[in-house]
Amino acid sequence: MSAIEEGFIPLSVAVLTISDTRTVDTDRSGRLLIDRLEGAGHRLEKREIIPDDPYRIRARVADWIADPAVQVILTTGGTGYTGRDSTPEAVSVLFDRPIEGFGELFRQLSREDVGSSTVQSRALAGMANGTVIFCLPGSTGACRTGWERILHEQLDSRHQPCNFANLVIPGREQHGS
Description:
single chain, alpha/beta, Molybdenum Cofactor Biosythetic Enzyme, Chain A, six-stranded mixed sheet, 6 helices, molybdenum cofactor biosynthesis, Molybdenum cofactor biosynthesis protein B, MoaB/Mog-like_dom_sf, MoaB, MoCF_biosynth_CS
């Protein structure tokens, strides 16, 4: 059965890898996200790799939030506690509304793979200008967990009782609780 089934609405997704060392050839986490989103039937709208610099991260994400062609932004990298990790500080100020449950659920699910080390994950998400933004850690395993255990369903307009896809598709905003 095809990933694109009746009622599925593909979304336009931008993928931003935040790393001081990765290139297109070595960016396994960004590649995994792209493979998964395209395999699910979504469209890759933009892709970029930038250094872990809070001002460059904020500028790129702000540009994509302002672009009506981008409905979803997935970032990978910069969510830990090392001196260069600055994704939460760079991106959270752009949110109109944070999605607290994303980081909470991500850390809960990650505990199965990395144990107590999950407390060092600062994965986060939010909405801004009708765009949903999910910031994942830079490891391929973390991106796999985030996609397979949360994002795959939450970016599918058919997922019930609610999903983020219907919040970014014009005219489809869900009502209720």
